[in-house]
Amino acid sequence: MALSLVFTGGCVGVGNDVEKTEKITIATSFYPVYIFTLNIVDGIDAFEVKCMAEQNIGCLHDYTLTSKDVRLLNDAAVLVINGAGMESFVEDAYKNVEDLSVIDSSTGIELLCGENEHGDNGNSHNADNENSHNHSHNHTDNSHIWLSVENAKKQVENIKNGLSEQFPEYRYLFFKNYEAYIKRLEALEETQKEYSSAITDKKVISFHKAYDYLAMDLGFQVVACVESDEGGEPSAKKLAELTKHIKEDEICALFIEPQYTGSAAEILKNETGINIYVINPVTSGEASLTAYEDIMKENYELILKAVK
To answer: What is the Cα–Cα distance from 112 to 213, expressed in whole angstroms?
Structure first.
């Protein structure tokens, strides 16, 4: 098991030894599983949780492993991943790290799949299916599972179970933290239900496929998904089709992510008068225990405003 040394204590007098404590490093692939893991190990001094992709990276569409990431993997005892194909960029690296245990938080979660440009998710399948965690981040499996609170609860459970298996001496503390966090996530689900009745069946166009899981929970429809980050900006013909779609089919809003840099959304807004809303896919933020709940509540409020 790899250990990282963390030095604590302030300035000391000459001749005093610096107090030294060993902490077990838990690496997490990116922001949502970082927040989930922080909650499970909260208050347990034996652990230090680190986020491999920095908290301001956003979604991992084109993320490239850095030398800093490789060092973190070599220092870590455990790597917690989202799974469902999100971390294909790091699979070769962690498979070559001796004694590194990997916790796949997507285990047992039904994935939305069969996506196309019109937002049709087709059938779903279970993340336990053969080699599901090795699939690339593509249009077959929608990896953005954490944007459903029900899925997030399962991810938190998987992380708790995985850490309990690796560190059974802390099983009771993991479970206590898990129970407290699940109660908060259940309260978030109740908040979600309050919004869903006013949001159900409303139609939007999305510029990020992450929102399909939000749509599933809240009941709105993503009638088209324009992914400029993967295939360039849509053609003039496609923009014309989308413009017609917005005018004729009662589309309420355009949803973009904070990192969106394309021009298509603004073009559609200018052509139709439709409003653009920045919906946070919970891929960056503060290292706060309540960050997931706080961001999701802000999203619910903004989505309600968007569809009214």
So the answer is: 8
Residues of 200-234 as b/e, b for ≥16 C-beta within 10 angstroms?
A: eebbbbbbbbbbbbbbbbbbbbbbbbbbbbeeeeb
Q: Which of 187, 210, 238 is the last residue of a domain?
A: 187
192 found inside a domain: no
Q: Are residues 208 and 84 in the same domain?
A: no
Whose structure tokens read 């690339």?
136
Residues 199-238: tens digit of each pLDDT = 999 999 999 888 999 999 999 999 998 865 445 688 899 9
Question: Angle at the Cα of 187 (from 184 to 190), degrees rounded to 5?
Answer: 160
Q: Tell me how far apart the alpha carbons of residues 221 and 119 are, in angstroms, rounded to a whole number.
A: 8
Chain segment 236-270, per-residue pLDDT in tens = 999 999 999 999 999 999 999 998 888 999 999 99
Please state the pTM of the whole predicted model: 0.85
Residue 122 and residue 218 in one domain = no
Domains contained in the chain, number: 2
Does one domain contain both 211 and 232? yes
Q: How far apart are CA 69 and CA 250, in angstroms?
A: 46
